[in-house]
Structure formats: C-alpha cells, structure tokens
Amino acid sequence: MDLVASSTRRPITGETLHGEDFQTISGGKGANQAVAAARLGAKVNMIGRVGDDDFGTRLQHNLKQEGIFLKGVEPVTDCTSGVAVITLAEGDNSIIVVAGANSCVTPDYVQKHRDLIAQSDIVLTQLEIPLETVEETAHICEKYHIPLVLNPAPAHPLSTSLVSKATFITPNQVEAQHLISQVEEDNIEALFEQWGNQLIMTDGKEGVIYSADGRIQRVPAYQVNPVDTTGAGDTFNGAFAYGTARSYPLERSCQFANAAASLSILKKGAQAGMPSKSEVEDFIRAEEEKDMEMDAMK
C-alpha cells in the first residue's frame, strides 16, 4: 500500500513540514506492473503475498477489480502487508519501502505456483521480493522456455546466473549505475557491451536506451507536464512486457511503453493514470501528427 504525502518541498534532516495532502493508494511494483499490463488488455496472473490486515484485503480487492487473476496471491497469517512511504515534492518522488508480506514470497511459494508460469507468454518480475525467489522464478522460466523481463528495482547486484536467464533487464538510470559495478569498466556503455540486447534502460525525460546490432539506440521520451511520477517505471515495464508478449519489434515495444508511462504521470497515484491500449495508441498517433505538422512548418 502506498502511503503518499504531498508537500511543496522535502524536509531537511530534523525538520517538520506542513504537508498539502495524504492518501493511501494500492501499489507495490509487482501489483503496479500487473495493473499496467491488465489495463492494456493482457490476461494477468499475479503471484505474491499480502498481510492478514486491512491493507491486504484492500490490495486483493483492487487487483480483482482490475481483472487480475489471484490464484497465486495468498495472505500471510500474523504479518503486515508491504507498504511504501512516498513523498511527493518538487515534481518528483522519494520512496521508502517496507517489505512486510512480500518477504514471504519464497522460492518454495513460487514453485507451488509454477504452473502459472509455465502457461504464460511472458513473466515480469522485480526485486521487492527476496532475490533467491527471483532466481527461482528465472530457473522456472528457463525450464519452460518462458521469456523473462527482470526489472532490477530496488537496485541490487545481480548474479551472473540470473542475468543469463533474463530475456530483458530494465533498469532506470539510477539502477543502471548500481549494475555497472558488475562490469570491468565503470560506464553505461560497458554495461551495454556486456549485456547487449538484454538491456533496456529507461532514462526519464531522455527516453529509453537499448542496443540493436551492436549499436546503442535511443527512443525519445514524450514531453508532458507530470502530476505524479510514482509508478511511471512500473507502467513502462507492464507495457513493455505486453508489447513483447504481442511480438512487437523491440523499438515499437519501447515506444509503446514510453507512451504508456507518459500518460501514467498525468494523474496522482501509481495506478490511477495507467492507460488502456486505445489511449496509448491514440496518444502516439496524436504525437506523430504533431511532429508531421512541425516538420511541415520548417
């Protein structure tokens, strides 16, 4: 559950500020990504855990309302649901995550629901669950030849084994900086050289960077006026996984996910602004028409 406080600026150490607004909003990276894909029309199975508390009940209800299948979601007795404490200020966010029941998404729990993975077109995971569980998920995906999109957030070093099993790895710029320590040279280019076509890096207002035919390519971002950037990365990942599962070319998947993420930040809350497929396609079409008009005026 996202506990969201809005303020004109962030407090400095030891300072108390008057906030402008407070909300509790269903969230979590895995759930956000599931909602993003479901809104686009995907059939989504969620594997995860919640606490046996009010937040857990509300989180499950929200997923059901989004049409997400919850065979793989179970409450944990005597455990709180995970929370993210989010500060919105100065047009951006800062977040503290407390794992709660997410820590109980163990390798054995994922194995219990391996049939859901085996029947999937694609699997999307992130690092708000234990790393050994992500490793087990990757192992199951490899066994059943299921493409795996790994969003390495929150940032954490990745084992060579995990990297080798992931079809795509999708860090943002900050997370990529944590990953470059795993290559010999301390720069993003070296990361692309080693991981090649696996690496899809989001770069905020600068768009998305990926590698094709040994060359680094960039898909520009769409320029919008953000209301709340919380969940933009999750929207990108859900939309990228959707596009990949639909066999979109890599550049189109990145463009489609870029557009979805741009639309998502026009409303407050991680899930509130997540768009439908038609909204994304209409947005892309409108932006292309604008570009054509600009070119004609030159």
Automatic annotation (TrEMBL):
What catalytic reaction does the record list?
Answer: 2-deoxy-D-ribose + ATP = 2-deoxy-D-ribose 5-phosphate + ADP + H(+)
The protein's enzyme class: transferase
Q: Which PROSITE patterns match?
A: PFKB_KINASES_2
Active site per UniProt: D234
For binding ATP, which residues are annotated in this chain's numbering? N172, T202, D203, G204, K205, E206, G207, G233, D234, N258
Q: InterPro entries of this UniProt entry?
A: Carboh/pur_kinase_PfkB_CS (IPR002173), PfkB_dom (IPR011611), Ribo/fructo_kinase (IPR002139), Ribokinase (IPR011877), Ribokinase-like (IPR029056)
Q: Which UniProt keywords apply?
A: ATP-binding, Carbohydrate metabolism, Cytoplasm, Kinase, Magnesium, Metal-binding, Nucleotide-binding, Potassium, Transferase
Q: Domain Carbohydrate kinase PfkB spans what residues? A: 1-276
Q: Which residues bind substrate?
A: G28, K29, G30, A31, N32, E128, D234
User: Is Cytoplasm one of the keywords?
Assistant: yes
Grouped into one coarse class, the protein's main location is: cytoplasm
Q: Which domain of life is it from?
A: Bacteria
* One Gene Ontology MF term: metal ion binding
Q: Which GO terms describe its cellular component?
A: cytosol
Q: Which cofactors are required for activity? A: Mg(2+)
E.C. numbers: 2.7.1.229
Q: Where is this site: Important for substrate specificity?
A: M1
Gene3D superfamilies attached to this UniProt entry? 3.40.1190.20
- Where K(+) binds, per the record, is at D228, T230, S264, K267, G269
Tell me where it resides.
Cytoplasm
Q: Which GO terms are recorded in the biological process aspect for this UniProt protein?
A: D-ribose catabolic process
What is the purpose of this protein? Catalyzes the ATP-dependent phosphorylation of 2-deoxy-D-ribose to 2-deoxy-D-ribose 5-phosphate (dRib-5P), allowing the use of deoxyribose as the sole carbon source.
Q: Which family does it belong to?
A: Belongs to the carbohydrate kinase pfkB family. Belongs to the carbohydrate kinase PfkB family. Deoxyribokinase subfamily.
- Assembly state and interactors? Homodimer.
Designated name of the protein: Deoxyribokinase
